[in-house]
Queue: 2 jobs
Job 1
Amino acid sequence: MNLEERKDLANILFPNIKNTREYYEKKYPNRNLPEGAMVTRFGPSPTGFVHMGSLFSSFVDSTYAKQSGGVFFLRIEDTDQKRMVENGIDGIFNDLESFDIVPDESSKNGGEYGPYIQSERTEIYQTYVKDLIIQGYAYPCFMKEEEIESIKEEQKVAKTKVGIYGMYAQDRDLTLDEIKQHLDNNDEYVIRLKSPGNPENIIKFHDEIKGDISFPEYDMDMVLLKKDGTPTYHLAHAIDDHLMHTTHVIRGDEWVSSIPLHVQLFNILGFDLPKYCHTAPITKKDEETGNIRKLSKRLDPEAAVSYYHEMGIPIPAVKLYLATILNSNFEEWYLNNSDKKIDDFTFTFDRMAVGGTAFDIEKLMNISKTYFSRKPAKEIYEEALEYTDKYDKEYNKKLKDNKDKMINFLNIEKDSDRPRKDISKYSDIKEEFSYSLLEDFKKENYSKYDGDKKYDVDLITDYINNYLDLDVDNSTWFNTVKEFATNNNFAASPKDYKKDPDKYKGHVGDICEAIRVMITGRLKSPDLFSIMKIIGKDEILERINLYKDYINK
RNA sequence: GACCUGUUGGUGAAGUGGUUUAACACGCUGCCCUCUCAAGGCAGUAUUCACGGGUUCGAAACCCGUACAGGUUACCA
């Protein structure tokens, strides 16, 4: 076909496309951004809720954009109508927002480079394809699905590269008349790239994360427009990221094998290539097969963003974990700069993992514990209120009804140099402090006690009535316990007891143990005196009575 | 099958040819501190960097091969 014929063809195929690419180039001028500012984007398909991997990806996008003074935008990639899910778009925005990831530009936040939903950009894509047809870089292909399948079968048997290229691209050189004939017959068609590549040539490519990669030049006649006129990912990617002036395409590494195609597409379209950053997937060892696989929404509950909300894992802790897998040196930095924020750290591409990263929930829990330990009791209380309001109404009421008491419990040992680390999720509070409210304690009734000793109720009652003063400080209190121990033939310290066990009935620790079991129903608890102070003498005695009933049963 | 990319302890990783007898963190084990626990402190946890060759005075680091793993090979993204 000569130029005139191609122009004819373009008008026949796209009679309604009146704009030229110049129109769009003008409409979306360069962004006026300072040197080094990065423009990043997150391009989810609205197929449901956000996956941990996507969350990570958008976290990376927004982090890099923010720290460079650039722009992070969100583009809904909904070119496949089959995959659409109702409310999919809202779900994405909600999930991201719950992690404080808010795009600078999007279909919701506005922006000068929209529309930010691909299904609303069809005309733009077709404008460029029309131009490609005129230039001879694209053509309509009428091959039927069965034909393509049989070619692929053939290729598999022959052990050659599978796909539509070279001699297999049957409709590459159809004449204008042949095409018109097909069109008259109402034959369905797609628009394919007429790939100019030669696989003998090796192209070199630099990925910001993976480093240098070489490929054979691309020579497949990839589909550009599907039969319904919508673009494939590849075409949309090239046009959108060019028009929206993305500087860094950050995406999962399942895309690296498409690089030769994308390089060629940008070339043919006359676009500058953005920088590419292919991130390693978040993986997990499959318990059945023992193989490493991507974290899967179907198989792994922790893959869904909603999991963290339901479990009550604090979002800042999750973000801290994401930051530690984003850059390998973040963790150590944060260890030495625990007063600083994630934003204060400068992330770089060369500190990103090249291979897959196993998702380590234990490490997350550790981060979370530390997060809680540094948080004032009042804030923990308030956030626990928010959490239980959504996921545990019953406990929410108890928390509300016992505000001061609960804050006091959460505050135990908070002001020490080494605050306690016994909760890692908001949902832990109910269990961890189950003895704190008398009502719950009555219900629990020593079921948590896992020892076999019976403690002397009279002895402890004597102590409470005659020695316990709740208005002193901790060390004064402990001295009175020692005094009481000595007066009752117990050793004042475990060391004394060990020296000469026959001399004593036990030691001060045994007395504390008895009190602890009686008033908390457990062998282990946070600081005993703090607990006693919070519940007060009357309740202490009430609990001792409960214990009495319990052992006399 | 073809094409890409990886492979350092239970996990994440540092390491870019010579103070590496392989950092740091999580986990695990032990000890210490201590009224219990949590925390904290200390120590242990890879005689060795998938395997086999090679280059070099010297390799976890460079080269080749093999194995294994992951990705792609869609009118899905």
Job 2
Amino acid sequence: MAEKAGVSLGTVSNAINRPEILAPETLKRVRKAIDELKFIPNASAQTLRAGKTRILGLVVPDISNPFFTDLAKGVNDAALLAGYVVILCNTDEDSEKEDHYIDILAGQNVRGILITPAHETNKRLNEISKRGIGLTLVDRPSIGLDTCSVEVNDAHGGLLALEHLYERGHRKIMCLTGESDIPQVAERERGMREAISRIPKADRPTIITQRIPMMTADSASTVMSEHIAEKGLNFTAVICGNDLVAFGAIRAIRAAGYSIPEDVSVIGYDDIDFAANATVPLTSIAQPKYQLGYAAAELVISECENPEKHAHQKIQFQPHLIVRNSTRSI
Amino acid sequence: MAEKAGVSLGTVSNAINRPEILAPETLKRVRKAIDELKFIPNASAQTLRAGKTRILGLVVPDISNPFFTDLAKGVNDAALLAGYVVILCNTDEDSEKEDHYIDILAGQNVRGILITPAHETNKRLNEISKRGIGLTLVDRPSIGLDTCSVEVNDAHGGLLALEHLYERGHRKIMCLTGESDIPQVAERERGMREAISRIPKADRPTIITQRIPMMTADSASTVMSEHIAEKGLNFTAVICGNDLVAFGAIRAIRAAGYSIPEDVSVIGYDDIDFAANATVPLTSIAQPKYQLGYAAAELVISECENPEKHAHQKIQFQPHLIVRNSTRSI
DNA sequence: CTGAAAGCGCTTACAG
DNA sequence: CTGAAAGCGCTTACAG
């Protein structure tokens, strides 16, 4: 072993963990040996001795969704900086899979878990905290759980979207979004109502709310086509639940013979990478996806490295409007 | 500890790992104690002793790319099935980050590594195999490395794209793609030449090859705009390096006042999810991304669980053509 | 079938 | 400043 450097194994350990206590000469020699032998400390042994891994678990409902992909990137980068590594768990919005993953993560002695629970909050999460594993909720309010959380101000996002359209002269606006029992959806609608309440009564726009079963392009396209077939184009703008929904809506509107943004303005949500590159560059409400993940990782890491000094906190980011070509003044 | 069951700690271990060698009576007693004390074996100690984790490392250049996202899903699912968990490493195409991650992975004693090296093949990879860690290359031929690999038949993909356009009457085709030193690019062009060689000489289409520095929409859009400004629309169809490139090309062609597919047919590559939902649904060459990841994971797992029975193998998938609205007959 | 013991590779007081 | 030694929690021959 690295004792070929002529020192004891304890000194090698100190060279790695507390280099300042070594004689400079010795340190140099040890480091040379480490390099030459390409010595990499065994994490299992370190963990066994120190009692702590440097592994985080990230549990998300759908890694195919660009939102979570960017978020995962943020988590990874923050983790790497702190010397942590992250195990990715994709639940496909399946609660059983989610529970299974949480058990596995606990068995691996992960130091902390970052999770966006698929449905409501998961009971198993309470046990996690009890076990001394850090926990922070991502993009979900921490209902009834004493943990950290990071989220985005959805009410403000809804307000931004509505104000943008109002300022451009739109008075008949469709809101194409998911079921109202989804926290995000409810919050955004609250923000829209807030925006409307600030407008003089006589000038307030009409809102046509159209729910879609899933937040996908296909689902949106179908619902939009049906709406137009039944009631015609009884709106001049659409606020969509996310960018994919916006793309689906645009497809349906075009298929009915109308143009974007000439006949209808469309605004998306999330500002996924593709929004800027879509054939009609999409106006959207941007969410700091990467930062959300980055902050969440910093939060758990701080929690597990200073459990006594740590106070649970909720970090809320602000969304902002990105204007592109899919909305125009009328 | 669980010796409250009145047995030695070695017996507890055997109860967990080799229950069949215990006296039924003892086993029962131990299990009861395990349940009551909610005993969960320490994975670090197990690993330290047995030398084997159930962790895989997945190293990709860019998890934001839908191609790798889908691939990661396949890896995750196959891993979960075999009781493995996967650490996700995103290198941003940075070789240093890649090396760093490989070291970390080695330190975590991962059982196997799945990697799409950012540039050529990484030297550090040789050491990985020496260390007894399973290794399989993903979407990269295993040049000079004695490992398993999974890939897609790129030559066939190029052939499919060209044949499709030829059959639809196109005789002036632009090939908008990356540098020829990228293995995938070279292979696809080889496939295109093969397709052309099968066509009667008099009827062979002309190919205009236009290289782009990066395989992104912006890069493609810029190059396409310049081309049209300089030489006009001297082609009736474009074969693109990937779907994002196709979107960029479409944007530029439209900006120049032409329509898709009326004036120009465009074919993408990868068939990312969004291709079907684009405003002009994109004809594309589909690659089995999920299956690629799934197969790769199965390969490493088989390698590390049966090192002696294992023979390195190369699995090659076939791409196929998905016809949508961005290409038409002339 | 069960227990005692060695040892996996580290970290960390504690002498010297 | 450095080395010798104990011990983290397991697994696994090896006696008995």
